[in-house]
Amino acid sequence: ACISIYCYVLSKINIAFVITTLLTIIIGVILSVVMTDAQLRLWRDRVSPEERKNSYFRNIFLNRVNQSSIQIKNAYLYFQSKYHTHNKKTRTEYIKLNLISMITEFVVSILFILSFLCTAIFVARGVINGSYTLGYYSMTISALTMLYANIKRFVKYAVGTNWYINVLEAYYEVLLYDER
């Protein structure tokens, strides 16, 4: 419903802005969903296994019995080096995971900003030429700002929903394994 209002406002300027805005929205959503799938694969294939290994070696030092065994067998350096190795790998994988999020957010924002600027410049030229009033320019900028905020909320919702759907699919896949 909200998008139809924004599209109506943009259609009064030029129908090309409606098409550009809709294409920007579609590209942003598709890009976000594809990148979320990539993040989930990275999490499943690299982050989660390294996190488990890191947790294992970190928790070894918290148990008195393990601590005693490590001291008796003089294995402290071995477990310490394993912990540091897996801790470093875990941090590196988390950085990659966050980098994917940041790049996706950046690219989608650039798409929206370019669409926003093209529309704002076109309407500003119309105000200078006398085709539009300053109030219409303000209304257009406000509408685009609200559209951008609504689309960001929608993309975050779509990405979150896609993440949970993929996690549930993996869970159901495990449930289908043969019990033998």
Description of the molecule:
With 180 residues, the protein is an all-alpha fold. The protein is built from five helices and no strands. Helix 2 (15-60) packs across helix 5. The longest helix is centred in the middle third of the chain and has 54 residues, at 76-129. The N and C termini lie far apart (52 Å). The mean pLDDT is 81.
Architecture blueprint of SSEs:
Elements (H helix, E strand, L loop, with lengths): L1 H12 L1 H46 L3 H9 L3 H54 L4 H42 L5
Helix pairs in contact: 1-2, 1-5, 2-4, 2-5, 4-5
Which descriptors apply to this entry?
single chain, 180 residues, mainly alpha
Radius of gyration: 26 Å
Topology order in helix (H) and strand (E) letters: HHHHH
Strand segment tally = 0
Low-confidence stretches: none
Helix content: over 70%
In short:
With 180 residues, the protein is mainly α. It is built from 5 helices and no strands.
